[in-house]
Amino acid sequence: MDRRHSRRRVDWAVRRRDRGRKSFAGGDTGVLPYLGGERTPHDDPLASATLSNLRAAAGPLHIARAVLEGVAFAMADCHDALTEAGAPIDTIALVGGGARSRFWGRLIATVIDRPLLLPPLAPLGPALGAALLARQASGGALIGEAASNATITLEPDTASCAGLQARREIFRQHYAKMPGS
């Protein structure tokens, strides 16, 4: 099974499980996603990934949800560090492989509590960005013909915000308990 099919299967299964529920939040399983350490906001290159509160009743969807939330919480921590440092952030766009999932994009928008833009070529973001920079270096225009009017805006899910913020606080407490943090 390729990764694209697997990602769609998880998206479908999580949406199906949540049908009729008012909130994204739920379950106790949590993930700190620091597979290669963490640079912002913790400046801890030795931080490691963890899976916590795993119970016998937890299944693959609980773990998948915990991974998605953990990465979203880490992104929100980075966002907070940047804004607290005075960095002006007018818009936020989701690009790269994760941009294929509107479910995950909306989860990130909800955790950050800001709209998230999904450009038309978002899944190609990193490769397209490199190509555009190469184009500019060779004398071409930086911006191509991709129309900005095709951009999708993912709004935060206000009904899920409180539950996710509570889980984010647990995420932060879990990091604080890690050795060396």
TrEMBL record:
One of its GO terms (biological process) is carbohydrate metabolic process. InterPro entries: ATPase_NBD (IPR043129), FGGY_C (IPR018485), FGGY_Carb_Kinase (IPR050406). The keyword Transferase applies. The keyword Plastid does not apply. Keywords: Kinase, Transferase. Pfam families: FGGY_C. One of its GO terms (molecular function) is kinase activity. It comes from the Bacteria. Belongs to the FGGY kinase family. This is Carbohydrate kinase FGGY C-terminal domain-containing protein.
